[in-house]
Design goal:
alpha+beta; four-stranded antiparallel beta sheet; globular
Length: 122
């Protein structure tokens, strides 16, 4: 994961790359703040009475603290590796761009990447 390139979907991000091209970067303490979830989350579940929270809150970094973007799936969706908190070492799928929320992939980075190397869809 140390270099950008070969990997599932649109390849892996470099560790030295900014959080996302075009974003302002991380808030102070972003990586040291524990990842907030242990179960899938989406805005409709968070605010069931109005079924929506504003986009500026939905896309806030608070929902992905303690994680690193490791690969771009496409259409604004990313695989994230949790580095802080109870889910540390596990991959999560950030599909907020398509209103899909944030959900666990059920595997760690090693297993996910080995699946891809073996020619199986991760």
């Amino acid at each position: 994961m140390g270099g950008h390139g070969a990997g599932p979907y649109y390849g892996l991000y470099r560790l030295s790359a900014p959080e996302c091209p075009g974003e302002d970067g991380w808030r102070p303490g972003f990586l040291s703040t524990p990842f907030p979830f242990t179960e899938a989350w989406n805005r409709a579940e968070h605010h069931p009475t109005d079924n929506e929270i504003p986009d500026d809150l939905y896309f806030d970094q608070r929902w992905i603290t303690g994680s690193l973007k490791v690969a771009h799936f496409g259409c604004g969706a990313y695989f994230r590796l949790v580095v802080t908190g109870p889910e540390r070492g596990r991959l999560w799928f950030d599909d907020r761009a398509s209103d899909g929320g944030v959900s666990p992939c059920g595997t760690g980075f090693r297993e996910w990447y080995l699946k891809w190397l073996d020619g199986r869809e991760p």
